[in-house]
Design goal:
By secondary structure, the chain is of the alpha/beta class. It folds into 5 domains: 5-197, P-loop containing nucleotide triphosphate hydrolases (Rossmann fold); 205-331, 3-Layer(aba) Sandwich (Rossmann fold); 348-409 and 499-520, Arc Repressor Mutant, subunit A; 418-491, Arc Repressor Mutant, subunit A (Orthogonal Bundle); 538-632, Arc Repressor Mutant, subunit A (Orthogonal Bundle). It has 26 helices and 21 strands. It is globular, with a radius of gyration of 27 Å. It starts with a helix and ends with a strand.
């Protein structure tokens, strides 16, 4: 029996109507059609698979690379009374086995998995026993080597389709160029081309690139002029605290956030910011994913992102309520050089990658020939200090090992305390009768954590202690004793990041990396870096630049960006314009040319004027830019 989507929406979310395109995407999925949904940040992608999951019998498999986002969605689904669970790197084998078995028995409506877990023999054997109604691929751009966040395990998702014939696939992403969109469909073996794309145009979001040598002074000026909540993105963790301290000294309420903080600290900071105090969050790109705060009035980047995909997604967190908001990039000439250096450090030599892999094996104390599925605590700072590694290079090497499917890195967000009462009711009752102190704790566990007799449930030992008005040490003593008596299984909270090995450890000499694919990804990453620099340096409508990058050719100027409103506009009189127009059109009469090739025909000191002339000629319809090339409009 299939329930109606709007009834499900009303029952569980309290909304009477869907956002634009959500109902069309949901109906396509319910019709059994492979579907690609391209919705901008804040477009409501999660409902597009959560609602169909509840409309039909069975379970929906959700594949996502973001542990924090998986946990957040599972938490919110459970709050709405929807049974959901997540499996990700860092979980113990016993936990995973219980979750899979419960899923086979129909205990959940949604099962979230990382792509690495999806490809394991254990997962594939259990999938055959599940009544799967949909496979949803979140952050689907990760499947494409053309994309900005390619992850090889995503390539193996299509193999699951052979195990689940007839089950439709829904791929979702907020950032995909036309090439990436096509690649997603090809790699997922779509039976047809069903694409829903919502316009990425945001008429309430004003983009601006401000050329400022004194960035911090300008930042203070902006924050004093633009009221409301805001986000400031930095590249390094250390700079987040530095800038936050600076803002507080200027009387601006702020805090900082990055992945190196403890789970408890991150949760507290995030919740406080969502409630409006502090007003400003200074952060790395670890902050913002999945956060539902509609009234962000300002997003500032103090450093240039390494791709327009990343910039568009982060800037798009402003103004989700439809009210006027600002996305500002503060830029200097040295930013381009710094980004190029950052790019070079992001692709270390193969010899260096091998050295860091060997160091990781030694640090983790995993023997050669073993380690598959093992998770170990991993202190990145200590690791770099122990083996005398530069942190940026070590970080890049570990990321590349992750992309190649050798390891996965997780932070403390995955390691809250978990507990399962595993004995039967009679044994539990007998234990409670014999242990009065344990009886009180067990009653709280059963009352506060439904399902704890069937599944590992995240618990708070402190909350239990508060409810019983007893010291925390007493609660822990009871739990550990019950564990020894085989009454329950308990995994205490771990505040440390972890590394999980997905292949057995090999010697450094036997470490294999597909160099052809490595170089291919490096070349595409370089193009994305140059596109980001080009966006910052071109005096052309910001919105049109971003839309064109994602394949949406709008002829209208946005009218609200720094270029359209006349800020940063280079002087260009009629005589100068005609001279530049003649030379540019002479070049383009031979063949269409990319921006970089046109610049080569002029001396470096004239590049700013050339950029302004190109922008004007495009806006007047004399030239057209498509496929990254300029051409004369016939």
């Amino acid at each position: 029996m299939t329930a109606q989507p709007r009834d499900i929406l009303q029952q569980y979310w309290g909304y009477a109507n869907f956002r634009p395109m959500q109902d069309d995407i949901i109906q396509s999925v319910l019709d059994g059609t492979d579907t690609l949904a391209l919705l901008p940040t804040g477009g409501g992608k999660s409902l597009c698979f959560q609602v169909p999951a509840l409309c039909k019998e069975g379970i929906t498999i959700v594949v996502s690379p973001l542990i924090a986002l998986m946990k957040d969605q599972v938490y919110n689904l459970k709050r709405r009374g929807i049974p959901a669970v997540a499996i990700f790197s860092g979980m113990r084998k016993q936990e995973i086995d219980i979750v899979f078995e419960n899923a086979c028995q129909g205990a959940y409506k949604l099962l979230y998995m990382s792509p690495e877990r999806l490809k394991t023999d254990l997962a594939q054997a259990r999938l055959l026993r599940m009544n799967v109604n949909l496979i949803a691929i979140d952050e689907a751009h990760c499947i494409s080597q053309w994309g900005y966040d390619f992850r090889p395990p995503y390539l193996q998702i299509a193999e699951i389709r052979a195990l689940l014939p007839g089950v439709p696939v829904l791929a979702l992403t907020a950032t995909a160029t036309p090439t990436v969109a096509q690649d997603i469909q090809d790699k997922l073996d779509f039976k047809n081309q069903k694409v829903f794309q919502q316009s990425f145009f945001r008429d309430n979001l004003s983009y601006a690139v401000l050329y400022e040598t004194k960035k911090y002074d300008k930042l203070i000026d902006i924050l004093q002029k633009v009221p409301g909540s805001g986000i400031i993105y930095m590249r390094s963790r250390g700079d987040t605290q530095k800038i936050s301290d600076l803002l507080r000294k200027k009387g601006i309420s702020s805090d900082f956030y990055h992945a190196g903080l403890s789970l408890e600290d991150r949760n507290k900071k995030q919740e406080a910011w969502i409630k409006g105090n502090p007003r400003i969050m200074v952060c790395t790109n670890a902050f913002g994913m999945g956060i539902d705060k509609p009234d962000v009035r300002l997003v500032v980047h103090l450093t240039l992102p390494d791709s327009l995909e990343a910039y568009f997604q982060e800037a798009g967190r402003g103004g989700r309520d439809g009210k006027k908001s600002y996305a500002v990039l503060l830029y200097t000439e040295t930013d381009a050089d710094q980004l190029r250096k950052f790019f070079e450090a992001s692709y270390p030599s193969f010899d260096l990658i091998r050295r860091i892999y060997q160091a990781l094996g030694s640090y983790s104390q995993i023997a050669i020939g073993s380690g598959v599925g093992e998770s170990v605590n991993f202190d990145f700072q200590q690791f770099c200090h122990t083996y005398k590694l530069e942190q940026p290079v070590a970080h890049a090497a570990l990321r590349l090992l992750e992309q190649e499917g050798w390891i996965a890195q997780t932070d403390a967000a995955a390691t809250a305390s978990k507990l399962l009462i595993k004995c039967n009711r009679e044994t539990l009752y007998d234990y409670q009768i014999r242990n009065k102190q344990a009886d009180a704790v067990i009653k709280v566990l059963l009352r506060q954590y439904p399902g704890i007799q069937h599944d590992f449930i995240e618990i708070s030992e402190g909350t239990i202690a508060n409810l019983l008005k007893t010291p925390l040490e007493n609660v822990l003593k009871v739990i550990h004793h019950a564990e020894k008596e085989n009454i329950l299984d308990y995994y205490p909270r771990n505040e440390k990041p972890q590394v999980t090995f997905f292949r057995e450890r090999v010697t450094a000499e036997n470490l294999s990396i597909d160099l052809e694919k490595f170089n291919f990804r490096r070349e595409n990453a370089y193009k994305r870096v140059e596109s980001s620099i080009l966006y910052a340096e071109r005096k052309h409508c910001r919105s049109r630049q971003l839309l064109a990058y994602f394949g949406e050719m709008r002829s209208e100027k946005c009218g609200i960006c720094d270029v359209c409103t006349g800020r940063n506009e280079a002087d260009l009189n009629e005589e100068t314009l005609q001279a530049y127009q003649r030379k540019i059109t002479d070049l383009l009469k031979v063949e269409p040319l990319p921006f970089e090739e046109i610049l080569k025909a002029f001396s470096p000191k004239k590049h700013e004027t050339v950029t302004a002339a190109l922008s004007y000629l495009c806006e007047e319809g004399i030239l057209q830019e498509s496929d990254e090339c300029f051409r004369i409009v016939q």
